Amino acid sequence: MIGRVASIFPVIHNTQSAHEVLDALGVCGKKVYKSCPKSCPVCQSKVFSTLELIGVCSTPVFWECDDCGALHCRRDRQWIENRIDRLENLWTNPNDWEEPESKNQLN
Ligand SMILES: [Zn+2]
After folding, report:
1. Neighbours of 70 (CB within 10 A)
2. Strand partners, 53
3. Which residue has the higher pLDDT, 10 or 68?
């Protein structure tokens, strides 16, 4: 099975909420598949890759159908959305980031 890695930063930029991010990625429903689905509920394909999202989790969070591209959750959808929400806060307010250099100058 192929393991793919994707960045969701471009998607986050164009969406309002983590829920929308998952919809934009093509996540299919809320059902959690702890092991690879036998066949894709959308197109019945039996060929899947795993998909890891950079910054969200260090292990893949989705099974991706190789034929139609539908994503099926490996973890609870709400858990994934919470992780994306945290990422989004970091991403949308880069001006709020602390700068370690200025701290060092004080010492
Ligand atoms: Zn499919």
Report:
1. 21
2. 6
3. 68
Kindly state the tokens that stand for 87.
């990422």
CA of 26 to the centre of ligand 1 (A): 11
Q: How far apart are CA 76 and CA 12, in angstroms?
A: 19
- Kindly give the distance from the C-alpha atom of residue 48 to the centroid of ligand 1, in angstroms, as a whole number: 8
* 12-32 per-position pLDDT tens digit: 888 889 999 999 999 999 999
Any bridge partners for residue 35, and if so which? none
Whether 98 has a pLDDT exceeding 70, the answer reads no
Q: How far is the CA of 37 from the centre of ligand 1 (A)?
A: 10
Residues around ion ligand 1, judged by CB within 5 A, are: 40, 42-43, 45, 65, 67-68, 70
Residue spans of the domains in the chain: they are 3-92
